[in-house]
Write a structure and sequence with these properties.
There is one protein chain. This protein is an alpha+beta fold and 232 residues long. Helices cover 34% and strands 34% of the residues. It has a five-stranded antiparallel sheet, with helices on one face. α1 (3-36) packs antiparallel against α2. The longest helix is centred in the middle third of the chain and has 39 residues, at 106-144. The two termini are 25 Å apart.
Length: 232
């Protein structure tokens, strides 16, 4: 099983789990807060525009509201494009501590985090399961499949996939199906060592392919066998 891809899948699942937990905690906290909170219309006293470390625009919304003749206010935790300085927005506050107040969109943040986290987690788990299945299928084919010495046709970089900013290689090869005489084209999985340099710098013309004798669509390209050329 390729450790690089397994690491990427595990990282995906881990980040998803973290987002999911944060989303659940935020949503739970907000739900509990809203059970006793009261609402009031607050005046938007200022909207401060800035930029974060990525250069994206940020908005700090400052609000004020009055309860029993006492003025409260501070930075709101939400912003929408409909907000205007001098306008009003609904805030929810703790009757026991009006200094603790939130915007109407706070609960949505928890839902977003939970949704993103759940999606990332599921994708990561599916990737891990697929890698495990692929590894098991490769072992089965190496044990029971027909060994072909397929001619290497091309080695390309898979720009559609990356782990830690690194793209893998993909190798294509062809060989004759011994049962039908037809030429079959095989494509390897992602290769995380420089197989292109090995093919270009050595007299490597073939790669081992294990073919399912009952189904030519099932095969395993044993690119790992080319590691022996590293350093030559």
């Amino acid at each position: 099983m390729n450790k690089t891809e397994l690491f990427g899948a595990g990282l995906f699942a881990f980040v998803g789990a973290v987002f999911l937990v944060i989303g659940i905690l935020v949503h739970s906290n907000n739900t509990k807060f809203m059970e006793t909170a009261k609402s009031i219309e607050a005046e938007i006293t200022d909207i401060r525009v800035g930029y974060d470390s990525d250069g994206d625009t940020t908005h700090d919304v400052l609000v004020e509201f009055v309860i029993d003749g006492e003025r409260y206010g501070g930075k709101l935790d939400t912003y929408t494009s409909s907000m205007r300085e001098g306008g009003t927005t609904t805030v929810y506050y703790d009757p026991q501590n009006p200094h603790d107040f939130r915007g109407s969109g706070t609960g949505f943040i928890g839902i977003v985090f939970s949704g993103m986290g759940g999606l990332f987690f599921v994708i990561g788990i599916v990737m891990i399961v697929n890698k495990v299945k692929s590894s098991a299928n490769a072992k089965t084919l190496k044990a029971t499949g027909t060994l072909l010495h397929a001619k290497i046709n091309d080695v390309t970089i898979n720009t559609a996939y990356a782990v830690n900013g690194k793209n893998p290689y993909r190798l294509t090869a062809s060989a004759e199906d011994p049962s039908t005489g037809k030429t079959l084209v095989f494509e390897s999985g992602n290769v995380w060592f420089n197989v292109k340099a090995i093919v270009d710098n050595n007299t490597v013309e073939t790669v081992d392919v294990y073919l399912d004798p009952t189904n030519p669509k099932k095969y395993f390209v044993d690119v790992e066998s080319l590691r022996s050329y590293i350093g030559n």
